[in-house]
Design a protein that fits this description.
Strands 1, 2, 3, 4, 5, 6 and 19 form a seven-stranded mixed sheet that branches. This protein has 315 residues and is an alpha/beta fold. The chain is built from seven helices and 19 strands. Helix 2 links the parallel strand 2 and strand 3.
């Protein structure tokens, strides 16, 4: 992506975040003839993945290619995009948007599509192989690794659910309790694991075994090695919602992080501010994020249209 100089200091809409949600919103806004700016820090959540799956007509496409096509599409409608980071947004008659590289712009409406970061379990080797043979979502990657020997690394007793789900894609699944005591699992958990054919291994995991740049096993603290070629983990989601919090948006604490309270179109409790994608929830996949950006944009187009008509009536 080439750098662009901003052609104006005032936009109808500033979209914060250039992933699937932000680009989808920008596409709709551009086609509605709204002066729109996308500020993209260039840190998509799915960057470690070689391909994205489950998006009709785009199944298997590399995430970087998907975003590059999206940037080309929004440019056709006059949408501007800059590689920068929004450091603050202040409310007023317009929103004042401060940029990390200096200066800022004004906007009548804001879309926050800043996503989230995945914080990996503190096990040697896990972070470096995430998106390759260390995975987190069977819907995203299960087909590609089907029937391989799976390991599932527990971060909490809730890891049982992940172990049961991935057993749909492989009959050879080992559930490593790591720092979870077996007593923390319910009788129903243990019976379900047994019914699914999932082996349960107590004890702490010391790290992964990698040979010739390929995952081959899971090493326990006692030195035992279990042969595995894929390991599923449950990263701790860290929503990038600082801007929304500073704007005073109502937030909701969930087991997967704190997210803004939004209506069906992504409108937050702050008038004029919408949110979409992983900024509103942990389970928003690419296809959901694109849909959320579209819904937010259509709502903004209607909101701005009514505001302009009401202003004309008042004048």
């Amino acid at each position: 992506m080439t750098e662009q100089n901003l052609t104006d200091s005032r936009y109808d809409v500033v979209v914060v975040g250039g992933g699937a949600a932000g680009l989808s919103a920008a596409l709709v806004l551009g086609r509605a003839r709204h002066r729109t700016l996308v500020v993209d820090a260039g840190e998509p959540r799915n960057a470690p993945s070689a391909h994205m799956q489950g998006y009709l007509s785009r199944d298997g496409m590399p995430p970087a290619e998907f975003l590059a096509l999206g940037r080309e599409e929004i440019a056709r409608y006059g949408v501007e995009l800059v590689r920068d980071r929004v450091t603050d947004v202040a409310r007023g008659e317009d929103f004042t948007v401060a940029l990390e590289r200096g200066g800022g712009v004004r906007a009548r409406r804001i879309v926050v599509a800043t996503g989230l970061e995945d914080e990996m379990p503190d096990v040697p080797g896990v972070a470096g192989r995430f998106g390759r043979d260390v995975l987190h979502c069977p819907f995203c990657h299960g087909w590609e690794v089907r029937d391989e020997p799976f390991g599932v690394l527990a971060s909490s007793p809730a890891g049982v659910h992940q172990a049961l789900m991935v057993s749909r894609w492989s009959k050879d699944v080992t559930f490593f309790l790591h720092r979870v005591a077996e007593e923390e699992l319910s009788d129903l958990d243990l019976r379900r694991l047994a019914a699914a054919g999932v082996d349960v291994v107590p004890g702490e995991v010391a790290g992964l075994v990698v040979e010739d740049d390929r995952l081959t096993g899971v090493r326990m603290a006692d030195g035992t090695v279990h042969s595995r070629s894929v390991v599923f983990v449950a990263p701790r989601p860290v929503p990038q919602t600082g801007l929304l919090e500073r704007l005073g948006a109502e937030m909701d604490e969930t087991p997967f992080g704190t997210y803004p309270v939004v209506d069906s179109n992504g409108l937050t409790s702050v008038p004029g501010v919408w949110a979409a994608g992983n900024a509103i929830g942990f389970t928003e996949q690419v296809v959901h994020a694109a849909s959320g950006g579209y819904r937010a944009a259509t709502a903004i187009v209607g909101d701005l249209r009514m505001a302009d008509l009401d202003a004309a009536l008042g004048a």
